[in-house]
Amino acid sequence: MTETSHDVRRELAAWGRAARACDLPAAARRETRRRALALLADRSVPDRPALTVPAVRPALAWAAALTVLCGGLLTVVNLHAQQRRAAQRTAQAETAKALRVETALPRRMTALQSRLDRAPRAVPAAATVPAADFGIDVRARRLQTRIEVYAVSLQRELGGLEEGRDAELREKRGESAREASLRAARDMC
Amino acid sequence: MCERENTVSDGELVRRLRAGDPDAFDRLFAKHRQGIFAYLRQRCGDAGLAEDVTQEVFVELVRRLDRIDPRRGVSGWLYRVARNRMIDVMRHRRFETLPGEDFFLSAAQRPPTGEDRGPAAGLLAAERAERLQRALATLPEKERDVLTMRYFGDLSFKEIAAATRRPLGTVLWQAHRAVRRLREQLEGEPEG
């Protein structure tokens, strides 16, 4: 006999219907119902021990929420303190820098002035006396030139320093170069 | 009114059951017990074992009510539990695949179809059922499972996909292949 897929399906369906027509025995049905309803009743009893679990859950949830909240607050406080300390450090560094500038500038200017004062203004007499010695004379002139160049460079450096100091002082006072010159003119008057 | 009560969905019944309504359990039990019993009896071939596992499945339904999603229906969940529990029991008892004597007797007692009318109809039906059962036993586990859920549990393919946690396309393909294999088996096997 040749079977088709349709035949097989029809056979299976008929067989399945027949199998479904057989019900559980009455005793098994009653027993299943009894066990299931007992469990169901147990689920709805309010004071059974299992209900302590839902009671614990909110407490755990509150504890977790409080922990998160406290953690967040501590983080914010820490961040704030860190920012404050960083601002303090910056202010201290700026003050120290200003102090250094104020103390170092006059000292350096004094040092330069003293170097300038100590620099020889003319060729020593001893260098020019032995006129017969051409070599000595040449060396003396070279020395003179070098001294003059050195003096000029010292003057320039001193002038630059003074200008820098004036600019810093103006900056500190918060006034422009024009205002500073006006003030200087007023002081002179 | 009564008709409307009869068309209450499984999801609604699960919600009522969660609220502690025993009537909801009775309805679910009445609706699904025969399909599950038939499926289990076909899979294990032992009516006594199928009874025990069916009971376990419905007790489990109440025990694990919180895990069931009412929106997804309950039949997929029930058959999944039935299948897993039966596999556990069979593994424990080392059951053989072929069903016992009681199964063939019940298959022979099925109502005769139009073409089966006649004095020898019952015997012929029993013979055909036995051939089909033998062919079914040779199918791979997954394909046999799909066919059994489909024809004995009367599940839709979508419900089978939910019960077996396989994609719908896979289930459809497995059903198609299983029927083809059955047909080939029955064609190759001499009758009587």
Please provide a written account of the structure.
The complex is a heterodimer of chains A (189) and B (192). Chain A has 189 residues and is mainly alpha-helical. Among the domains of chain A are: 54-104; 119-189, no CATH class. Chain A is built from 6 helices and no strands. Chain A is rod-shaped, with a radius of gyration of 52 Å. The model of chain A is unreliable at 47-51 (pLDDT under 50). Chain B starts with a helix and ends with a helix. Chain B folds into 2 domains: 9-95, Rna Polymerase Sigma Factor, Chain: A (Orthogonal Bundle); 138-187, Arc Repressor Mutant, subunit A (Orthogonal Bundle). Chain B is globular. Chain B has 192 residues and is mostly helical. The A-B interface holds A 1-5, 7-9, 11-25, 28-29, 31-33, 35-37, 39-41, 43-44 and B 17, 20, 22, 25-26, 29, 33-35, 37-38, 41-42, 51, 54-55, 58-59, 61-63, 65, 106-107, 109-111, 113, 128-129, 132, 147, 150-154, 179-180, 182-183, 186-187, 191.
User: By helix and strand content of chain B, what is the structural category?
Assistant: mainly alpha
Number of strands of chain A: 0
Quote the distance from N terminus to C terminus of chain A: 135 Å
CATH architecture of the largest domain in chain B, by name, is: Orthogonal Bundle
Write down the secondary-structure element order of chain A: HHHHHH
Biggest interface, chains and residue tallies: A-B, 36 and 44 residues
Helix-residue proportion of chain A: over 70%
Number of discrete helical segments of chain B = 10
Low-pLDDT stretches of chain B: 100-105, 107-116
Distance between the termini of chain B: 52 Å
Q: What's the short story on this structure?
A:
The complex is a heterodimer of chains A (189) and B (192). With 189 residues, chain A is mainly α.
Descriptive keywords:
heterodimer, A: 189 residues, mainly alpha, 6 helices, 0% strand, B: 192 residues, Rna Polymerase Sigma Factor, Chain: A, Arc Repressor Mutant, subunit A, 2 domains, globular
